[in-house]
Request: fold
Amino acid sequence: MGRLAGKVAIVTGGASGMGAATVKRFRAEGAEVFVADIQEDLGGEVAKETGATFARLDVASNEDWISLAAQVEKRFGRLDVLFNNAGVVGGENTVDRIDLAVWNRLISINQTGVLLGCHHAVKLMRRNPGGSCGSIINTASTVSYVALSHDIAYSATKAAVRNLTKSVAVWCAQAKTNIRCNSIHPGPIDTAIFSHAVPAGTDMAPIMKALNAMAPVGRMGRPEEVAAAAVFFASDEAPFVTGAELVVDGGMIAVHPDLPRE
Reply:
């Protein structure tokens, strides 16, 4: 414990799933944390439970980011960590049946939202007392490497986050900002995002069975396992790690399809 003592962090999508798990872990490690989410009731509960601060944030809104940055600076005078975690799936959207409204929504949240977070975090971190420094962590996906045929929007946006992260990392390094930027690539993690991706009333039992069978380890990941990866990137244990990708998927993308064996 204490790996993030004295640090101030923002966790977007902090009201549920991997975001809520990361808020709890960051707080346990000693950080002051802003739970940034559009889900006010859930976000407020997480903040109350952990001693964090809730801030309503639509990640696709530049005005909301400006307001949050001002709130963080006024209260603590610094920002050390941004976990750009908020994201949504598109559901059944294929290249022949793409819904442009869904496409544009995912671009605005999964891609523009990450960009805006990086932009405002860098501005705050460069003004930190004692000198420019900080860690930005972007939630990408295993879908950054291998695409979903049924969700072209999610596939495209998560691939974009992978390279956006590298662009931010390289610029920050070359500008001598002492700000790092890395991405986490979860595989199937046991959160509510899967139930949101299927029609209401769908029998989830066979879907959950298939999800548990995706990785060689034979189970879905836990939100806390992603939070542990975020702690490493956020901590002072990773000063030479930037532009990196940490895959948290139980070996899913490490295995090639094989022929049946007796």
About this structure: The two ends are 47 Å apart (CA to CA).
